[in-house]
Write a structure and sequence with these properties.
Strand content: 15-25%
Number of helices: 3
Length: 131
């Protein structure tokens, strides 16, 4: 029982919007500073919009620098974005995400609306070699 606070009910200190003390930051704020929590637990909570939204607060002095993106992670993210940007019908890769859940294809394949040629990359060329 040494070091146990008898009056601590296990809740985090809660701050309202723009009332958190200096030295605490949310994950987004840490990311903007080029940092990450680094494995330590949150030390508080900030609430806004009447308590309907909240975020954990972390100590900035315990935060560590973000890890650099590896080539494997970058390739995996590119494949994930390609799945959202490539039309399954015409195989064009657009520069924005397509409404594949609702329409199932790009607008040109769905209803014939012409697409701007600058908004997509042409499908890969097919080769018909014997080998």
């Amino acid at each position: 029982m040494l070091g146990t606070d008898l009056y601590d009910d296990g809740t985090f200190p809660e701050f309202t919007w723009k009332q958190a003390p200096t030295g605490l930051a949310t994950r987004r704020q840490l990311r903007a500073m080029g940092l990450r929590p680094g494995g330590h637990e949150p030390v508080g909570r900030i609430t806004c919009r009447g308590g309907t939204r909240w975020a954990w607060l972390y100590r900035v002095d315990l935060a560590v620098p973000k890890l650099p993106m590896s080539y494997a992670k970058e390739a995996a993210l590119d494949r994930a974005m390609e799945a959202r940007q490539r039309c399954p019908v015409c195989s064009r890769r657009y520069h924005q995400c397509l409404p594949l859940r609702t329409l199932g294809a790009c607008l040109e394949c769905y209803d014939g609306t012409p697409a701007d040629p600058d908004s997509y990359t042409a499908p890969p060329a097919e080769h018909h070699l014997a080998a």
